[in-house]
């Protein structure tokens, strides 16, 4: 065995021993949160399609029409091949939705966060993150070359303390957080965060990947980014900000400049989904209502978003519980370190407007029975 394969085998064995090895499982998706695995029909509570729009006939039709009219791919970077009209329309609508002057669409939410922070901060600057921020926010912060510090999760006293102790020694400062945290489903105190940021002349970037269309109340940050792949049921990422900031990132965000533009079908699907999102407030309210139905039935803390964690503890325990639920027809993913801290492995239950009350009740009964005692 060569040294590369030996290295891989050694690492795989260690992951296996800790119940941390990841494997891909072929899974089909359909309307009404349907899923299939190994020929078995299941109900998925693992998908971030919070509004069920990936399966909406209007969204599918918009994607099909875009492929027929414009082809499957974008052909290259938007700065090389030219800017597609659908992307311009999508950016205009996203900016209006967020109350901003302009928007920029990236190839994914991960690419957005890889590009935004390094375009605005560098050597001699400060980037401060909530310590539960998503991995892509961490990656962008480290790529920037700025000094990277953290504050305790949603702890405003700690945030103020860290800024008071470190802000004066740096040029620019960025403060990174999520509106809805992806693994715990809790909300950031945006009023307090923005107030503290203003006190220290820090620019706030909020990741709204899990809030768009579901939890959007409260103030806007100067930098509002998110994804097109969750509530909008498509694929891609975006930043909404002032016209000056978006114009600057057009020349500085490397993950925008040096990558192929979003395919026309993805842009058209997201655009139609955004129209539906704005037309149907009852659809947007449904995921939180169902999540709260679930937490009430299980005696868990009241859900703050469409994401509810069921804490288990060790990785193997979470895998076992997920497998037991799968055997009963429920697809609920087990989340393990390093995605979450050691000892906090969990089931991550994601609720969608496409779920029925009976599906939610059946899942809650199964979880209660399997975790009893």
UniProtKB/TrEMBL annotation:
Pathway: Cofactor biosynthesis; biotin biosynthesis. Residues 42-366 form the Aminotransferase class I/classII large domain. Keywords: Aminotransferase, Biotin biosynthesis, Pyridoxal phosphate, Transferase. It comes from the Bacteria. InterPro entries: Aminotrans_II_pyridoxalP_BS, Aminotransferase_I/II_large, AON_synthase_class-II, PyrdxlP-dep_Trfase, PyrdxlP-dep_Trfase_major, PyrdxlP-dep_Trfase_small. It catalyses: 6-carboxyhexanoyl-[ACP] + L-alanine + H(+) = (8S)-8-amino-7-oxononanoate + holo-[ACP] + CO2. Pfam families: Aminotran_1_2. Its cofactor is pyridoxal 5'-phosphate. Its EC number is 2.3.1.47. GO terms for molecular function: transaminase activity. It is an enzyme of class 2 (transferase). Homodimer. Belongs to the class-II pyridoxal-phosphate-dependent aminotransferase family. BioF subfamily. This is 8-amino-7-oxononanoate synthase. It comes from Methylobacterium komagatae. The lineage of its organism: Bacteria, Pseudomonadati, Pseudomonadota, Alphaproteobacteria, Hyphomicrobiales.
């Amino acid at each position: 065995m060569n040294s590369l394969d030996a290295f891989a085998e050694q690492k795989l064995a260690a992951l296996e021993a800790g119940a941390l090895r990841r494997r891909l499982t072929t899974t089909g998706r359909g309307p009404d949160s349907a899923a299939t695995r190994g020929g078995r029909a299941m109900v998925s509570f693992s998908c971030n399609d919070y509004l069920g729009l990936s399966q909406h006939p209007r969204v599918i039709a918009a994607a099909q029409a875009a492929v027929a009219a414009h082809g499957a791919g974008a052909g290259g970077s938007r700065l090389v091949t030219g800017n597609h009209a659908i992307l311009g329309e999508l950016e205009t609508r996203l900016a209006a939705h967020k109350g901003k002057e302009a928007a920029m669409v990236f190839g994914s939410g991960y690419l957005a966060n890889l590009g935004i922070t390094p375009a605005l901060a560098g050597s001699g600057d400060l980037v401060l993150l909530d310590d539960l921020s998503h991995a892509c926010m961490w990656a962008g912060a480290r790529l920037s070359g700025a000094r990277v510090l953290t504050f305790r999760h949603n702890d405003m006293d700690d945030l103020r303390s860290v800024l008071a102790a470190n802000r004066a020694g740096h040029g620019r400062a960025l403060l990174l957080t999520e509106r809805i945290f992806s693994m715990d489903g809790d909300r950031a105190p945006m009023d307090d965060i923005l107030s503290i940021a203003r006190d220290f002349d820090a620019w706030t970037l909020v990741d709204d990947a899990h809030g768009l269309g579901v939890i959007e109340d409260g103030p806007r940050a100067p930098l509002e980014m998110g994804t097109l792949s969750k509530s909008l049921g498509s694929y891609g990422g975006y930043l909404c900000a002032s016209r000056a900031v978006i114009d600057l990132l057009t020349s500085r965000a490397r993950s925008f400049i040096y990558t192929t533009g979003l395919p026309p079908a993805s842009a058209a699907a997201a655009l139609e989904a955004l129209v539906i999102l704005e037309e149907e407030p009852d659809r947007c309210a449904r995921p939180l209502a169902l999540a709260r139905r679930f937490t009430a039935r299980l005696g868990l803390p009241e859900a703050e978003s469409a994401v509810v964690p069921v804490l288990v503890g060790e990785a193997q325990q979470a895998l076992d519980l997920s497998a037991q639920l799968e055997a009963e027809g429920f697809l609920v993913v087990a989340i393990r370190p390093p995605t979450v801290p050691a000892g906090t492995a969990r089931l991550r239950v994601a609720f969608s407007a496409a779920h029925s009350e009976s599906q939610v009740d059946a899942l809650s009964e199964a979880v209660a029975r399997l975790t009893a005692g």
